[in-house]
């Protein structure tokens, strides 16, 4: 059986196993893996207290960031432009009019 040093802050082998499941072998990050980790950490919080809240909050932030990246990528691949670029780029008709009205030197 795995012996967990008391210094690592975990109170049992099952908690250590849960942490290993979260941070185990490096695999591609997916929404499903993050959601599974959130459930594990939620159980740790329920059984052990609020000391695991920072981990839960970090996982929630990572899940939101992953969803945002996937949504933006899908939008860009579908031909949409980011909102900020729409505001910065002049409409073609207006830029043409401005060039026609410029004084000739």
Main attributes of the structure:
disordered N terminus
Contiguous uncertain segments of 5+ residues: 1-7
Mean pLDDT: 75
What structural class do the secondary elements suggest? mainly alpha
**Number of strand segments:** 0
Give the helix level as a range of percent.
Answer: 55-70%
Number of domains: 1
Following the backbone from N to C, one meets helices and strands in this order, namely: HHHHH
Note the total helix count: 5
Radius of gyration: 25 Å
User: CA-to-CA gap between the ends?
Assistant: 87 Å
Largest sheet, strands/sense/barrel: none
Shape: elongated
* Fraction in beta strands: under 5%
Topology (elements, then pairings):
Blueprint: H1 13-22, H2 31-48, H3 53-77, H4 83-88, H5 92-101
Helix pairs in contact: 1-2, 2-3
Model description:
- This protein is an all-alpha fold and 105 residues long.
- It has one domain.
- The protein is built from five helices and no strands.
- α1 packs antiparallel against α2 and α2 packs antiparallel against α3.
- The longest helix is centred in the middle third of the chain and has 25 residues.
- 9% of the residues are buried.
- The N terminus is likely disordered.
Compose a concise summary of this entry:
The chain is mainly α.
């Amino acid at each position: 059986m795995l012996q967990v040093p008391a210094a690592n802050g975990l109170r049992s082998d099952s908690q250590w196993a849960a942490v290993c499941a979260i941070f185990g072998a490096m695999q591609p990050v997916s929404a499903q893996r993050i959601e599974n980790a959130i459930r594990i950490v939620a159980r740790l919080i329920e059984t052990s207290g609020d000391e695991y809240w920072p981990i839960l909050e970090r996982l929630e932030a990572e899940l939101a960031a992953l969803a945002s990246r996937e949504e933006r990528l899908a939008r860009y691949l579908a031909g949409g432009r980011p909102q900020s670029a729409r505001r910065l780029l002049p409409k073609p008709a207006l830029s043409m009019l401005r060039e026609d009205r410029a004084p000739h030197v």
